[in-house]
Amino acid sequence: STGVVFIVSTxxxxxxxxxxxxFYNWLADTSVxxxxxxxxxxxxxxxxxxxxxxxxxxxxxxxxxxxDKFLRAKCxxxxxxxxxxxxxxxxxxxxxxxxxxxxxxxxKRDRRLQQKKKEAILKxxxxxxxxxxxxxxxDD
Length: 140
Fold this sequence. Notes:
Helix content: 40-55%
């Protein structure tokens, strides 16, 4: 699987910053394109931290909320809840620090889960191999 982290701001009228417009538009189009499989982002694990200003009410962290919605529409797998920093409250650094700690915990949890899955697969393969070997020895 692939992992990606988005740290993104929202600009005027809920628009993405210039450097993210093309990606944002592609992702928006992909999320509703019925020619693209519903599971298109199934192997994508992601985390998002939005930098916004609650003075803009309905547009507060709109880009980060939209990216989350677009990825989930095609089965992207969010690693932890969306982080939403608020410059108006003056605690952006503290909010990000908390989100970052949660992010690393989520990464560790995901790695443990992946390791358990690998171990279960190997155990099952070994069981199947042993069963085949046993059936061959019964034929002797």
